[in-house]
Amino acid sequence: MKKIMMGDEAVARGAYEYGVTFASAYPGTPSTEILENISKYKEIYSEWAPNEKVALEAAIGASIAGARSLAAMKHVGLNVAADPLFTFAYTGVNGGCIVITADDPGMHSSQNEQDNRYYAKFAKIPMVEPSDSQECKDFVGYALDLSEKYDTPVLFRLTTRVSHGKGVVELKERKDIEMKSYKKDISKYVMVPANAQKKHIEVEKRLKALKEESERSPLNKIEWKSKEIGIITSGISYLYVKEIFDDEVSILKLGMTYPLPEKLIREFAEKVDRLYVVEELEPYIEEYVKSLGISVIGKDLIPNIGELNPGIIKKALKGEENEYIELDLNIPGRPPMLCAGCPHRGVFYVLKQKKVPVLGDIGCYTLGAAPPLEAIDTCVCMGASISGAHGFQKANEHNGRKQKIFSVIGDSTFFHSGITGLIDIVYNKGNAVPIILDNRITAMTGHQQNPGTGKTLMGENTQEIDIPKLCEAIGIKNIRVVNPFDIEDVKNAVDEAMTTDETMAIVAKGPCALIPPKPTGECKINQDKCRKCGVCLRIGCPAISKKDGLFNIDPEQCTGCTVCMQVCPFDAIEKVR
Amino acid sequence: MQDVTSILLVGVGGQGTILASKILTEGLLNEGYDVKMSEVHGMSQRGGSVNTQIRFGKKVYSPVIDLGSADIIVAFEKMEAARWLKYLKKEGTMIVNTVEIPSLTILIGKEKYPEDLIEILTDKTKTITVDASKIAEELGNIKAQNIVLLGKLIKYLDLRNIDWEAIIKENVPEKFLDLNIKAFRKGLE
Question: Which of A246, A324, A534, B103 is most buried, most CB within 10 Å of its CB?
Fold first, then answer.
């Protein structure tokens, strides 16, 4: 049977067909749909972990127990999970285990565009890179076999266009793979120095064997055509090369990209007149080819910044460009913005007026940095808000600068890595004020459950972790739970935080406007009372607009959250339903 | 048409481009075409400019459409039509929903919504206008605008022979089925 599938969905199908029974992940674009789709197969136990490190450690535990397992994450998630990864490389597996990294060249929804292929080399584990959805499915099976044969985790590298691209996939039945038995083996699984020192020697031996595997791997193959030009490529870049050159050039397509196949590359390079490497982001393959003393053209022509596309390759290698229609017209940009009815809006409105540094985090609320709210000063990585605010505050204090410092962090991000920052504040007697924006869901990645929502990935009810109680247990003296749709309530809490020296946390608890039951209220501007001051525009609500001098609220978008009503100085906005 | 047809669906996050493209690709697959599609999820969905790229033919490689290489652009909003025009082939066709959705800078009065967009587009390329939002509203729910536009695209592609209504049935909730079938038929008119 054939089905059109997204790359992530095909990876999930691969997990099903090739006998995975344990999968864990923390949501992150473009990897989120892997676990969302895995959760549809009852044969696989799947869960959202609080962060990527926990997800990988759980997958390691499942592998040691004997199950085929996987952990999935976006590229920056692998930074979080890097600690277990490097030692997992030493212990090796029992049941096959793959670690999926979904990179985001072009940063469609990320804070950087690091090239995670270097992680394979760094951790000394094999890596596979599919080009399309069919390969996404097939390579899962290959990678699991590789993992078990060579006793190693396998890095499974995707990029946005592979993860979110769709293509035709041939489906097969699930293979019945029995869970392996578990045998206690201290020299293999207890990485104390004496054992780890021996293991490192094995890892180096394993790499040599894996290099031989790469030489004969069906994933690495030459497509011989004209030998005037030879192109070495992998992943999505392979499809772009095929699009531009079709059958005009010879191609060495690499599906197993660590270790790289030295002999195969030499054979290919010797037989073509001119050799290119076409790869997205860093010169990962190019550096290796050059290290073999082979002359090759890569990043001299192909940019290492942003995504590639067929047009870039055509221009770089053929010197040709498509003709296109240009408009001599200023088209206003359309950046994403906080939704109408978003619970974060009121908090940002209050914070902006205080003119205090607000250290931000990763999630929808990062949009609070955009005009007109401009309420956030920083966005670095998951969890960096609370800890960053603590450092900011301590540096100020130590150098004699007096200033109140705030941070904002979502519920899911707080569980991910905000808690340790809060412990830092309490332990080291700081007074930066965290505001936990608890919108009851992991919103930005498309509404996944988290430890605070009371539901698991597989749809079961579970214990809801109580954020205020957690803050209390950590030792926060003053915890204020506010309704983010009530500006006065938020303002009072922030005012109190401005003056107190004790450790304080604010929890703004209000549901995301997009989760059911969706709010259905409506506010309207009374044109007789409206003095056209424009204050309502300062909250950056997509439902409120100014046209031909008149202010209006779009009833289709309005949820009746009343934030605009509360900021209007002339009581010109009324709640009509 | 040539071997591979490239279609770009562009609009504003929340307008339903993803569902329309899902129905389209499933229909094309049933008909035996090789199909590739690309879309981006995540941050851009929060009211930002969104696009879905669909390519079909005997054999398709790239899921991504380049500047000047789309055969058809279906713009769910006028300003997005103008923004993405550079992706259209010179001899390509623009199907545009005549609705205006202002972006933030326009909402707060800092920039103006560009005027005479339909005239400008018509002057530059073959342009088909559809009042899809209005048609859907008249049918009872503006959300069905995506299916009206899908109908228009199917009509233009001359792919009526595929059983689209069956695919729509598989992809929309029962209570919205009637609305979406009507919307699709309106688009085909």
Answer: B103
